[in-house]
């Protein structure tokens, strides 16, 4: 499964959408996620992408690939540092959004 967490942006084709941190963490715990794309700001009074990153690192819920599509530079930096410092071997953490070429691959793979 490919998972996209964002409270505002539309879900890219091929991804499952999590609108908040709780839903994202539940899906990470219940399903095998191969690619995760995280936003940082999830609305006033809500948990943030940092909370998700901390839970991923603390509970070792790492998917194979993580992308950080947040427009918050500080938020992306914090998530990247948390995730990268604790990642197991074989996990890739990208400090930016999913590139278009990878998006095309995901769309193809999700149709199988």
Explain what this protein looks like in three dimensions.
- The structure is a single chain.
- The protein has 112 residues and is an alpha/beta fold.
- The protein has a single domain, classed as Response regulator (Rossmann fold, 3-Layer(aba) Sandwich).
- Helices cover 41% and strands 16% of the residues.
- It is built from 4 helices and 5 strands.
- A 5-stranded parallel sheet has the order 2-1-3-4-5.
- Strand 3 (35-38), helix 2 and strand 4 (65-68) form a beta-alpha-beta unit.
- Helix 1 (21-30) runs parallel beside helix 2 and helix 2 (49-59) packs parallel to helix 3.
- The protein is globular and about 35 Å long.
- The relative contact order is 0.20.
């Amino acid at each position: 499964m490919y998972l996209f967490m964002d409270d505002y942006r539309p879900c890219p084709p091929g991804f499952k959408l999590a609108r908040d941190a709780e839903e994202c963490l539940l899906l990470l715990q219940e399903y095998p996620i191969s690619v995760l794309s995280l936003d940082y700001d999830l609305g006033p009074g809500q948990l943030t992408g940092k909370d998700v990153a901390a839970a991923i690192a603390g509970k070792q819920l790492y998917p194979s690939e993580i992308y950080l599509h947040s427009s918050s530079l500080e938020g992306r930096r914090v998530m990247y540092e948390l995730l990268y410092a604790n990642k197991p071997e074989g996990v890739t953490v990208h400090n930016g959004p999913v590139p278009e070429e990878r998006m095309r691959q995901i769309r193809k793979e999700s149709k199988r």
